[in-house]
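Title: Comparing notes on inverse folding

I've been comparing how different people in this forum approach sequence design from structure. To keep things fair, I'm posting one structure and asking everyone to reply with a full sequence. Here's the target:
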């Protein structure tokens, strides 16, 4: 059983821009988001964390809806030049570390979350997916939010949460289902 008060106290000590609890059914799933993955992302078909390995959008929705709660966490970081994609992406590791800290806080309470996070998994230099092999580190691999067809912006708006963008700010989000 989740001790939400304890968890919220622990979350307040992390470098989070936002955290918010809600029900998975409040998420918007869209085949359009998946279409963007397939047609615009260079990682499509190259990782267990990305489509088509993550399954069809309907299957992803059912997987997420099977959990009673969802915790959204977000971090924000300023970079020198937002148009420098390498600089922006270099901030991803810090967000993933915070995501894993939150995972560990949930585990300390006996909860094993299902985690969606940022971009493609980077645990291995070459994903075992490319060789038709199972994931080498499933406990470290978090599929990306978009891989499940989730359009996060409407959920943020519905929850009264602001999506920070502009200037030289990079905002990263993760979803932890439990």
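Reply #1:
Here's my take.
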């Amino acid at each position: 059983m989740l001790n939400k008060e304890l968890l919220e106290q622990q979350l307040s000590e992390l470098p989070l821009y936002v955290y918010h609890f809600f029900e998975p059914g409040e998420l918007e799933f869209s085949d359009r988001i998946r279409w963007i993955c397939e047609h615009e992302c260079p990682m499509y078909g190259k990782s267990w964390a990305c489509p088509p390995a993550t399954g069809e959008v309907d299957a992803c929705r059912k997987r997420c809806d099977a959990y009673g709660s969802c915790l959204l966490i977000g971090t924000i970081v300023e970079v020198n030049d937002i148009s420098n994609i390498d600089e922006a992406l270099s901030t991803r590791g810090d967000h993933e570390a915070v995501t894993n800290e939150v995972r560990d806080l949930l585990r300390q309470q006996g909860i094993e979350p299902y985690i969606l996070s940022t971009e493609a998994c980077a645990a291995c230099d070459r994903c075992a997916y490319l060789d038709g092999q199972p994931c080498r580190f499933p406990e470290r691999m978090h599929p990306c939010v978009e891989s499940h067809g989730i359009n996060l912006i409407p959920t943020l708006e519905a929850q009264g949460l602001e999506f920070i963008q502009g200037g030289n700010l990079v905002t990263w989000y993760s979803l932890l289902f439990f």
